[in-house]
Design goal:
Elements: E1 3-7, H1 14-21, E2 31-33, E3 36-43, E4 46-55, E5 59-64, H2 71-84, H3 92-98, H4 105-110, H5 122-132, H6 137-151, E6 154-157, E7 160-163, H7 168-172, H8 176-179, H9 186-200, H10 206-210, H11 214-222, H12 229-238, H13 251-260, H14 269-276, H15 283-293
Helix pairs in contact: 5-9, 5-12, 11-12, 13-15
The protein binds a DNA duplex (13 and 12 nucleotides) through residues 129-130, 132-140, 142, 183-188, 191, 225-231, 234, 247, 249-253, 291.
DNA sequence: CGCCAGGTTAGAG
DNA sequence: CTCTAACATGGC
């Protein structure tokens, strides 16, 4: 078996996801070629290189390129893709809410079918969030690129190299001297290594967090140095796709609310919370479309 | 040059 | 509990 398909909900538009996936030329963790996305992941320590194409807007065609896979690997890969594009969620209730919001309504219409672009790897979510703290996205991508090139596993296939995000074991074994040349600050270097150690020691794992209710999951994540409210919520949004997670204080959200409320200053926390009230239970999706707004 | 960027921590008041 | 400096550097 080297290909299979996944049926799509009506409220899904692959084009919007492609646009998002193509947003940085420095991205090494997937490769977009026209309307196809290539990605390398590990399933039970096996490197699986696959590509995704959308057929007739009704299903995704998944083709595994580097080997034949068995039923259980196929099932893991399918699960991965459902998480990556948040396909197992019925987002119609959110659209019903957003239709009543005159600011978000046009954004919803323009990006109809855009879902959370998940990050199934929790370690990657947390480290990426830490890298992105307080710096612009472009520089954040440069740092991630260097980290992935320096410590990520890779597979060469038809003259091209495909990368995976570094494993916690690898980052737990590096020192400041390895990360500072990548232009990590001392603080970020410490955070990244600390997060890796938390995974290696078993203090934290995706399975462990997965079984917890939202608030307990948040508390577990915040125990790690470098992971505050913003980062924890970001991970809960991207990795676990909790529909009610959202990074309060986020600069993108603040800018969107500033525009909506027509302010000449940054909105206060209360103003942001007040705006989000109407999206109770769907804060993650409101966030997603607010980010699209600007 | 100055200010802000997908924040967090430790320390002071 | 709230406020602030420090963190490091790119982009505009």
């Amino acid at each position: 078996m080297n290909s299979f398909s996944i049926p799509l909900p009506k409220e899904f538009n692959f084009e919007h996801h492609l646009t998002h996936l193509k947003r940085s030329p420095k991205e090494l963790l997937h490769t977009c070629v026209e309307d196809e996305v290539f990605k390398l992941i590990a399933i039970n320590d096996n490197k699986i290189l696959f590509k995704i194409k959308c057929i007739d807007k009704s299903h995704l065609l998944i083709t595994i390129l580097n080997k034949k896979i068995n039923e259980s690997t196929k099932s893991e890969l399918e699960k991965y893709i459902l998480e990556w594009f948040d396909l197992d969620k019925d987002i119609r209730p959110f659209y019903t809410l957003a239709a009543k919001d005159k600011f978000l309504k046009p954004v919803i219409q323009k990006f109809y079918g855009y879902r959370i672009v998940g990050q199934p790897d929790l370690f990657e979510s947390l480290v990426w969030a830490v890298i992105g703290q307080q710096i612009n996205l472009s520089f954040a991508y440069t740092m991630k690129q260097r980290l992935v090139e320096g410590f990520g596993e890779r597979l060469e296939f038809k003259e091209k190299i495909y990368y995976m995000f570094p494993k916690p074991e690898r980052i737990a074994s590096v020192t400041h001297d390895d990360l500072l040349p990548l232009q990590f600050s001392r603080q970020k270097s410490k955070y990244a290594i600390g997060i890796a150690e938390a995974f290696v020691s078993g203090q934290i794992s995706k399975d462990k967090i997965n079984d917890l209710p939202w608030d307990e999951a948040l508390n577990e994540l915040i125990k790690i140095k470098g992971v505050g409210q913003w980062t924890a919520n970001y991970a809960l949004l991207r990795t676990f796709r909790y529909p009610n997670a959202f990074p309060l204080g986020d600069a993108g959200i603040n800018n969107a609310i500033k525009k909506i409320l027509n302010l000449d200053r940054r909105p206060t926390t209360e103003e942001v919370i007040k705006y989000f009230k109407k999206y109770k239970g769907w804060e993650a999706y409101a966030t997603l479309y607010l980010w699209k707004m600007i």
